[in-house]
Amino acid sequence: MTTYTRRGPGQSYLKVVLQDRINKLVDTKDLDLEINPLKVYEKMVTDIEMEKGSLPSSLSKSVTYDEAAANSTVQQIIEPRLRILMDIANSFLDTIIAGLEEAPYGIRWICKQIRSLSKRKYPDAQDHTICTLIGGFFFLRFINPAIVTPRSYMLIENTPGDNPRRTLTYVRAELFSWSSYNSLTPAVDCQNVTECRK
Fold it and tell me: Residue 63's pLDDT is what?
């Protein structure tokens, strides 16, 4: 599948749909959208130590994931980052949906085959379930690899910095979870995500 997506039609589609979005994101090198509570806590502790010279007695140098997640300051740091990540993921999704007509015939044919074979094997399956299969294929095997490794797909010239790379990873995860209806955020309309099945 990777070989197919890196050929002419797949590469052209990915460039048309993703290149501008990824380049804009990669250009924001200083935008830190880390949402892992442990990493946020560690950075917060390091910043406090550098600023004040030592840690207040109320903060421990090392904590568990649950303790970091329960810290109110960490929650305040993460909350706006989540909103920004959701906005970024939504902008990627809007761009992908707007460009579905440009999707290579081969990808649309595979999506159609997934739909028809699933209907044949599981005639009682709900559309939601079949859409999950199609969305999983489309994002997991086609879109997400290009988002996570844009340089490999010739969408950018240089390797992205740590912050943009982490943000791209979060965007990929959110897009995939939407396509498989596992996100805590509002689910995307099945018909839009899997338009390629027609």
Answer: 93
For residues 168-188, b (16+ Cβ closer than 10 Å) or e, as one string?
A: bebbbbbbbbbbbbebeeeeb
**7: helix, coil or strand?**
coil
Contact 139, 195 (CB under 8 A): no
Residue with tokens 């340089």: 151
pTM: 0.81
Contacts of residue 160, defined as CB under 8 A and 6 or more positions apart, other chains included, come to 26, 150, 151, 168
Q: What is the pLDDT of residues 46-100, one digit of tens each?
A: 999 999 888 888 888 889 999 999 999 999 999 999 999 999 999 999 999 999 8
Residue 22 belongs to some domain of the structure: yes
Q: Report pLDDT digits (tens) over 125-138.
A: 888 888 888 888 88
Query: Is residue 105 in a domain?
Result: yes
Range of the domain at 143: 2-31+82-197
Q: Is residue 177 part of a domain?
A: yes
Closest CA to 165 of 70, 31, 12: 31
Counting Cβ atoms within 10 Å, is residue 193 exposed (0-12), middle (13-18) or buried (19+)? Answer: buried
CATH of the domain at 12: 1.10.506.10
